[in-house]
Amino acid sequence: MAAGGSASRRAQEARRQERRLREQWQAARQEARRWEAASEGEQQVAAQLLVLREQGWRLLVDRHWPGTRAANVDMLLIGPGGVFVIDVKNWRAAPEICDGRLIAGGESRDADARKLTAMTRTAESAVASLGLSPVAVRPVMVFAGRRLDVALGRIRLLGEHNIGPALVRERGRLSAASVRAIADHLERVFPEYEDPGATPSPQRPDHPQVPVADGLFDLDGLVEATLDEARQAPIEQWMTFLHPDQVALVRRNWAGPARISGPAGTGKTVVGLHRAAHLAQRTNGRILYVTFANNLPRVQATFLKSMAPATADRIDFRSLHSWAQEYLRARGVSVRLDKNKAETAFFRAWTRAGRGSCLEEIDPVPHYWQDEINCVIKGRGITSFDEYAAVPRRRRRSSLRRPHRQAVWKLYEEYESYRAGRGVHDFNDVLALALAEAAKHSGPAPYTAVIVDEVQDLTLVGVRLLHALVGNAANGLLLIGDGQQAVYPGGFRLSEAGIDVRGDRGQVLRVNYRNSKEILDTALGVVAEDTFDDIDGLRTPGRRDVDLTYYDGQVQYVVKPTEAEHDRALLDALRALSPEQQADTAVLCPSKRAIERCHRLLTKEGIPVCSLEHYDGHPVEAVKLGSYRRAKGLEFKRVYLPRHDEGLHDSGRLLGTGLSDDGQVPMDRLPETARERAELARSQLFVAMTRARDVLWLGSVVPDDGARPSDSPPGAR
Ligand SMILES: Nc1ncnc2c1ncn2[C@@H]1O[C@H](COP(=O)(O)OP(=O)(O)OP(=O)(O)O)[C@@H](O)[C@H]1O
Q1: Domain covering 547-716 in this structure, CATH number
Q2: CB atoms < 10 A from the CB of 117, how many?
Q3: Residue minimizing CA distance to atom 30 of ligand 1
Q4: Which of 180, 224, 456, 602 could form a disulfide with 607 if both were Cys (CB 3.0 to 4.6 A apart)?
Q5: Looking at ligand 1, which residue's alpha carbon is closest to its atom 2?
């Protein structure tokens, strides 16, 4: 279609809108004039808002504020954009914001702002029972006869002529049925106001006493806003409605650090995001929302911006290490993070102190010992051998006697000496330096609240660092995670970080909103035998009880005798998807090598690919491709796991031990470190599988003479 054609259609539509709005405006003016109780300013504002009624909004005027003896709420407006608590001001002087304070005519008007915020909390509580998140309830101060649009913390200050267009422009979050149900509910909770001291008015409702000004209606603004709104997609359901238990967590007052746990897909991140927005609405400070992974903060920031745009600029979404580096730089502490040089330092140390030592008898793979240094020694901030000799090595399977620990310590000291000699830091050093800096810091905390998502992936030092930023302040630290989804070696307990989340400060979510029974059962089957220790010290069986809400969804097993046939089946399945379907599809692989291979396959076939490293949550018409680890915290309608069971066999394979790599070696006969590796590989596969909403595609290569049964791949048994 030529551009001219669509421009003229748009102009026609705008003219139609304008006619309709003119008629609605006339009717609205008549109606507003009948409200004798309302002040002149209120009548004028009401007339502007009544026009919105034709667009699906409900306006409740002059309501009693429940819980008070005789206070009223000027207006409640409920529509596609949410619930708005409106206070109308007819001030002689123009409102101004100075240093975060509301001023008019040189006088502070903060009391008015506080009162409106308190009214909004009453409305929030009223709709929480319907599952409406506080992000959907917003306070608005409207100034009769003025034009303005500014924010004062959570409150939006709008001129009489700006309010209509501003509200129509809000992204659609409530359906017509929800608007009706919420408005009916609020009508009951906020009954009509009857002024106890008022003398009966002599005026008759149909005798207009207060003239409502003509010609001030912002027709152009409203037409433009209506057209804009029609172009916007509505936001996701979960960005407005939660389970009442989730809303309760979002709004809860915790006296100190708190924790939310629960199996995969139970809405932990959803609660975390709503909580971040809620805290940003209630305080003036900044909120830090941290995860271990680099890609997740971008996606979460995108979601939050759609969900609660007014709070977005006060919430920092960061990965822990990038945040820590920036924190150090801002304090003038020099950091020379160099992953490659640190890696070289380790291998030099291994050559000198590891190779040929008693460590090789336990596990000949240097990476196992590199993990020991990273996750156990440095990850826990251990600086003396005595400490290391006594430490419980959580989630590490090998039992190390004193001579082994001495050998590890020697390797650690060699590594540190090489690393320091090269003048570089590793990732653990960055966190340790930041922790030292945070411990020194006095004065106001840089953040009002810190929310940590996927906390099980952090090290003990990482958690201590984030705790140091807010201490035990009320509503300060919230830790969200699930020990079953730990994808890195090692571990810690919250008590070791000095964090106490006993009683109501440890909450568990149990309802899965993401996976169908078939998909979840398949995923749980992978980790069924793996009892895990969570960060609160609780031992939990691998197969957990989960309540399900989502029933559509299927697992597709594709078993082919050769790699070529397997790859062809994958490509055929992906090519059969429409571009919109591809946009909600992920291909996940256990290793970098497997990702590179898949990337070549897909691009050669002309299938558009977006690396998970670059995905930021905005829809892209391309298949997402990345590692199991990078898929953490994300979800897709369709998830493809090519050769999904190979990682399991590789991890069980024992280098130099003579054990077979066909996966048939009984688990209890595998050496401890191989069992640990296999367990970690299963956790990663579990995470990848639980990313699938509608379709989980599990590919396997089993040669015709293969030892493995062809109807049910091992990963799925
Ligand atoms: N109250 C709700 N109503 C409907 N859907 C919900 C609700 N809560 C969460 N969801 C849906 O469930 C999905 C999973 O939520 P979320 O990602 O927060 O779970 P999670 O527990 O953090 O998962 P994981 O630990 O596997 O990363 C969300 O994408 C959202 O679509």
Answers
A1: 3.40.50.300
A2: 17
A3: 238
A4: 602
A5: 242
Q: Where are the alpha helices (DSSP H) in 483-536?
A: 517-527
- 367 CB neighbour count, 10 Å cutoff: 13
**Ligand 1 pocket check for 514: Cβ under 6 Å:** yes
Q: Does the predicted TM-score (pTM) go above 0.90? A: no
Q: Does ligand 1 come within 6 angstroms of the Cβ of 395?
A: no
Q: Is the CB of 268 under 6 A from ligand 1?
A: yes
- The domain made up of 14-194+215-235 has a fold known as Trna Endonuclease; Chain: A, domain 1 (3.40.1350)
List the chain domain ranges.
14-194+215-235, 242-334+428-513, 339-424, 547-716
Query: For the segment 678-691, what is each residue's pLDDT rounded down to a tens digit?
Result: 888 999 999 999 99
689 within ligand 1 shell (Cβ under 6 A): no
ipTM of the complex: 0.98
Whether 242-334+428-513 shares its CATH topology with 547-716 is answered yes
46: tokens are 């009401």
Determine the atom of ligand 1 nearest the C-alpha atom of 481.
25
484 and 540 Cβ atoms separated by less than 8 Å = yes
Is 686 near ligand 1, meaning CB less than 6 Å away? no
Q: Name the CATH superfamily, with its identifier, for domain 242-334+428-513.
A: P-loop containing nucleotide triphosphate hydrolases (3.40.50.300)
Read off the pLDDT of residues 144-185 as tens digits, 9 standing for 90 and up.
889 999 999 899 999 998 998 899 888 889 999 999 999 999
DSSP string, 462-497: HHHHHHHHHTT-TTTEEEE--GGG--SS----GGGG
Instruction: List strands edge to edge, sheet with 609-611.
Output: 554-560, 692-701, 636-641, 585-589, 623-627, 609-611
Ligand 1 mean position, distance from CA 689 (Å):
15
